[in-house]
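Bumping my old thread because nobody answered last time. Still need a sequence for this structure:
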């Protein structure tokens, strides 16, 4: 099952490794079950650019500043960052539409530039010789892919050409290297072309097997630097956004429920407290009434303490005939005296009543009767015959 591909955009062909050797195909749909496989694609394209960013006096060291730098200068492109060394960063960048094109192959796991894959491969093979300028030349079916590497950086874009353009392209590359004062010390290749030794006579040739290269490619995992699949990224962001929205809605619903329970609990407490307050107010009202009545009693008793009121009442009773019975007696305080109200009846029938009543109202009263009325001023008496012909009388006056 094919899982690793090299896509050469200039020729629109795919390179893959089939058990024993590397092959090309214009269409891999018949060779790969795209729906069930995660495919890794290394792209050779003039549309993928590489930029080196030096860290000037640590200005880009902070992650936040570095991210702002990327958003400012590469906001309209797809990119990924690779670390070169403590003083430099590298950025592979291209238009977003190109990345979508590379991922349109099918169930692609990730897309990586071919030259970055080569640099990772060389780091594994030549860890001690990273500072030596070298050429990487890979040959498959008389198609060559060449790149010059120095300090983990591709000095020039990858060039791919067919056998008939071998001398012209390598002579051109050598001229550009000489103009920069770069002398190739090693050639890392799977090609057996003898012209390499004549063109770079001072360079040591190191051979590798193409199977090694594809096996290394196979080991690259998702966490390795690569161009992101924007459709998948946006889908994940949408899922994350929906998840956050759902969490927010759930949290908000819980808050609303808690608030409702809180309001119900608070209302219940308010109701209970209101009942307590009403009960307390009623008690205060009752107590106030009792206090007011007690104050009235105290005020009354202040002027009519028990020994005196009994004396006055005795003198009042002497005014009436012996057979007179006082049924109701009410005494209320006025400004500087007390008002006296009362009801009563006379036993012994009508004749007896007339006799006693005449005695009570007789202007020719004995002096003793006048003396008996002395505690009462302006006493007024009226009478009527009630049920069963029982004489009744009412009286009022001022008590001094």
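Sorry it took so long. Here it is:
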């Amino acid at each position: 099952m094919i899982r690793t591909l090299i896509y050469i955009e200039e020729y629109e062909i795919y390179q893959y490794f089939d058990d024993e050797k590397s092959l090309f195909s214009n269409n891999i749909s018949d060779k790969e079950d795209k729906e069930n496989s995660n495919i890794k694609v290394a792209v050779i394209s003039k549309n993928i650019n590489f930029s080196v960013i030096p860290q000037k006096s640590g200005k880009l060291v902070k992650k936040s500043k570095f991210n702002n730098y990327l958003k400012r200068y590469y906001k309209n492109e797809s990119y990924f960052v690779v670390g070169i060394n403590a003083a430099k960063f590298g950025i592979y960048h291209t238009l977003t539409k190109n990345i979508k094109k590379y991922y349109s192959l099918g169930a692609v796991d990730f897309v990586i530039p071919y030259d970055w894959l080569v640099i990772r491969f060389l780091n594994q093979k030549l860890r001690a010789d990273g500072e030596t300028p070298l050429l990487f030349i890979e040959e498959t079916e008389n198609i060559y892919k060449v790149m010059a590497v120095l300090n983990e950086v591709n000095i020039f874009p990858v060039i791919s050409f067919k056998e008939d353009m071998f001398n012209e392209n390598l002579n051109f590359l050598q001229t550009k290297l000489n103009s920069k004062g770069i002398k190739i010390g090693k050639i890392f290749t799977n090609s057996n072309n003898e012209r390499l030794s004549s063109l770079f006579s001072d360079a040591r040739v190191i051979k590798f097997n193409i199977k090694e290269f594809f096996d290394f490619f196979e080991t690259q995992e998702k966490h390795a630097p690569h161009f992101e699949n924007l459709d998948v990224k946006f889908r994940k962001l949408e899922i994350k956004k929906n998840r956050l929205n759902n969490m927010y809605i759930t949290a908000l619903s819980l808050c609303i429920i808690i608030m409702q329970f809180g309001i119900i609990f608070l209302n219940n407490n308010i109701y209970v407290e209101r009942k307590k307050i009403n009960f307390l107010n009623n008690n205060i009202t009752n107590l106030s009434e009792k206090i007011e009545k007690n104050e009235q009693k105290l005020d009354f008793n202040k002027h009519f303490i028990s020994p005196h009121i009994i004396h006055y009442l005795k003198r009042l009773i002497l005014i009436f005939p012996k057979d007179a019975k006082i049924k109701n007696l009410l005494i209320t305080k006025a400004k500087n005296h007390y008002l006296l109200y009362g009801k009563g009846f006379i036993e012994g029938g009508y004749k007896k009543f007339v006799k006693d009543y005449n005695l009570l109202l007789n202007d020719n009263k004995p002096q003793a009767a006048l003396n008996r009325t002395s505690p009462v001023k302006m006493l007024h008496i009226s009478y009527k015959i009630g049920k069963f012909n029982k004489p009744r009388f009412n009286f009022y006056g001022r008590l001094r």
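The radius of gyration is 60 Å. Let me know if any region looks off to you.
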